[in-house]
Amino acid sequence: MKILTGNDLGSGDVVWWTGSGWSRHVEDAVDVADHGEAIASEEEGARRVNVPYVIDGTPTPEGPRPAHIKDRIRALGPTVRADLTLKPADPAAGSWVI
Amino acid sequence: MADAFRYRDDAVHEEPAVTLEAFLAQTDASAVRLESGDDARALIPALDRLQLVEIAFPTFRDGRGYSAASILREAGYAGELRAQGDVLVDQIPLMRRCGFDSFAPEAPVDDEVLARSLARYDDVYQTTVDAAVPVWKLRHG
Amino acid sequence: MYRYDQYDQAIVDARVDEFRDQVQRRLSGALSEDQFKPLRLMNGLYLQLHAYMLRVAVPYGTLDSRQMRMLGHIARKYDRGYGHFTTRQNIQYNWIKLEQAPDILAELATVEMHAIQTSGNCIRNISSDQFAGAAADEVTDPRPWAELIRQWSTFHPEFSYLPRKFKIAVIAADEDRAAMRLHDIGIQLVERDGAVGARVFVGGGMGRTPMIASEIAEFVPVDELLSYLEACLRVYNRHGRRDNIYKARIKILVNDLGADEYRRQVAEEHAAVKALGIDPPAAELERIAAMFAAPALDASAPTDLDRSDPDFALWLDGNVAAHKVAGHAIATISLKPVGGIPGDASADQIDLMADLAERYSHDELRVTHSQNIVLPHVRIADLHAIWTALHGAGLGEANLDLISDIIACPGLDYCSLANARSIPVAQKIAQRFGDLGRQRELGELKLKISGCINACGHHHAGHIGILGVDRKGVENYQLLLGGSGAEDVSLAKITGPGFDEDGIVDAVEKVTDVYLARREGAERFVDTYRRLGMEPFKEALYG
Fold first, then answer.
1. pLDDT tens, position by position, C411-434
2. Beta strands C373-379; C328-333: pairing state
């Protein structure tokens, strides 16, 4: 699947395209198929996202899993500070990234 | 291209700016355009007949024009020194300090932003070719 | 230390106003990201993996307790309770919002701090020796010179759009505690006929093509130094490559031209600019130097110490260096607790260090390029009280220059440029070698880890260096041996094929075992490597 991601302009938060807007949670990301560039362009022009880009991902029961470890780290947070991630209490979170 | 503007009182120089190679070959040319890789020092022997030097900024990241302009002013060039190309409003104050007194940006420049930018800093740390007195001189007279 | 006068303050305040304007124009869309990026970089603001990252300048690594407390305040108010001290003596915050960045800069400006030129293709923070003003071996305190250069380089209009970043270091001793030879310009202050001048090296750097700087000038007197630097920079600005960002540093230019030709071009340029009034009068350096006068230190202060606490004794032996004034010492606070994140400090730890500096170190601290903190002027009699406070706050690790005193970049956990994570590797290595007795047995061992070829972890300058790479989407680690950023400067060499995360920890153990088996006399790891060459280490690693 293809996922569209970027950063929120004002806050810098990592965001994922949900089909209608931007979520901070990768579970909400949808498959953009081959529309990613077009959506990115429109959303960036309207400043609803900053430096968006399309990545590969795999659908899983927990939600889309970005193909590259860098984007999984973006999705969750630093692997060395569980307390700073989006899922500080989730023991499985670390292995999901790696 | 957006409107060009200049900080000079004299009349706009009408003669088209030729390439450096052409300028050096033509003894009657008075306007030259330097590409970012051209050597500004090549103009020094001909400064007395030069009235316009246009320096290209092919991308705003290419900072060679700042040195080219400084070199010309240091050598005594008093004619029009124009920055042309990918010139952004936030760079114009720096370019003024390097001796540019004329601008031909590709994209329009916001006048209000420009006015604020030019007026923002009362003090400068270093001597350049402009008339600003560096802070160390204010400290020690 | 340097104190702003009305001009310095006005300039920093104007910069805050300028950046606030630029941010507002970015948020409104008047500036595209492409146009805004160089502007925000020139204020140290990156867009990183998780958020914006702000790099605050600590000029030549020196700050006082008031400034340190502001750094702690920013960590609490605008970030997530901690900061990261860097290999260029600065501090970074990883969770910054663009909307708040101007307010942060405004708060910094109230304590004479800023984030000016901590990134971008311009002249960066001028770094220096963390023992400046306290070490007996320096010719003079290098920091007034660093301050002079800092002012000259700040908003220099000709050099704001260089081919690439530009890093300058200034030291004043033969012992190089600031990796001076690995800078774009490195300056060693030396004495000649009773005067101090600059020995100027150009063309050092790490990254994709590491190089050691060449000596370009033997002795530049202070009244010509800035015009000489102007000439060095102008030659670079005019002729440095702009076609390939991996070939754009000045080291490539100096290497391509040859040091002799580069020197000749600089001399020619210098002759042209020398008379243009670039150099301030001697009075300006004197004005600055007066602010760096040594604090009033009582040389008759007591020197006896109670070493009965073994942990305190280990810290004394490991982290405390001699001060030029009797009765005093230089204490290094390790930010490398075994298993912790190298260079990170919590807001509470930052406040504690500020308090200790104010109380015990004449209100001064230093950041080192090894990502530790120094209290430069402490009384020997106060060392136990200092250590007790540090120990209670997780800042008492006695591992200075030992294998667990690791330099590590933030790596893929934080940095969008990275190919691999560096912090977990640092943690695992530190834990493998956690026993302090074992570390002291190994002795001085500078281990440096970079998560990508940009080499922010200085791996080329490690006695043991580790470079994280991306091998078909999987993190992989290359091992390098024999580098040094000190006066015995050398570039580390790769051992062979890389390792996975567990493999690299084993590999480090294998090469240290070779060292222990083969060392002679008082050799350090790097000395044994230099004597034996790569072969025995390669043999142990790859069989």
1. 999 999 999 999 999 999 999 999
2. antiparallel
Question: Tokens 């931007």 correspond to what residue?
Answer: A22
Three-state SS for chain A is CEEEEEECCCCCCEEEECCCCEECCHHHCCCCCCCHHHHHHHHHHCCCCEEEEEEEEECCCCCCEECCHHHHHHHHCCCCCHHHCCCCCCCCHHHHHC
Q: What is the mean pLDDT of residues C366-387?
A: 98
Select from 3.30.70.3340, 3.40.80.10, 3.60.15.10, 3.30.1490.20 the CATH code of C310-392: 3.30.70.3340
Tokens in use for C461?
């300058």
- The set of residues, in sequence order, having a beta carbon less than 8 Å from that of B120 and lying 6+ positions away, is B93, C14, C17, C18
Determine the Cα–Cα distance for residues B9 and B38; give it in Å rounded to an integer. 28
- What are the residues of chain A with a beta carbon less than 8 Å away from any beta carbon of chain C? 7, 9-14, 47, 50-51, 67-70, 73-74, 77-81, 84
CA C176 to chain centre: 12
Closest Cα in chain B, distance from residue C248 (Å) = 12
Cβ within 8 Å, pair A73-C27: no
Cβ C50–A70 below 8 Å, yes or no? no
Spatial CA neighbour of C57 closest among C129, C154, C148: C154
User: Domains along chain B?
Assistant: 5-140 (3.40.50)
Q: Which residues of chain C form CATH 3.30.413.10?
A: 134-289, 407-542
pLDDT single digits (tens) A69-86: 999 999 999 999 999 999
pTM for the model? 0.97
Structure tokens at A78: 């630093």
Q: Which of residues 203-262 of C touch B (CB under 8 A)?
A: 226, 234, 237-238, 242
- Number of helical H runs and strand E runs in chain B: 5, 6
Give residue for tokens 């007195």: B133
Check CB contact of C12 with chain B, cutoff 8 Å: no
In chain C, residues with a C-beta closer than 8 Å to the C-beta of A57 are none
**Closest Cβ–Cβ partner in C27, C50, C96 for A77:** C50
Domain with CATH 3.90.480.20 in chain C: 6-109
CB contact under 8 A, A74 and C98: no
Q: Is the dihedral of CA A16, A21, A24, A29 positive or negative?
A: negative
C475 near A CB under 8 A: yes
Q: Are the beta carbons of B61 and C160 separated by less than 8 Å?
A: no
pLDDT digits (tens, 9 = 90+) for B105-125: 999 999 999 999 999 999 999
For residue C541, what is the DSSP state?
H
Question: Within chain B, where are the H helices?
Answer: 20-25, 64-74, 92-97, 111-120, 135-140
Asked if A touches B (at least 3 Cβ pairs < 8 angstroms), the answer reads no
**φ, ψ of residue C128 in degrees (nearest 5):** -155, -175
Q: Is C423 on the interface with A (CB under 8 A)?
A: yes
| Each residue's pLDDT tens digit, C154-181 | 999 999 999 999 999 999 999 999 999 9
Residue among C476, C485, C500 at smallest CA distance from C407: C485
Mutation to test the A interface, candidates C94, C421, C431, C502, most A Cβ within 10 Å: C421
Q: Under CATH, to which class is C134-289 assigned? A: alpha beta
Which segments of C259-343 are extended strands (E)? 320-322, 328-333
Tokens coding C358: 């104010």
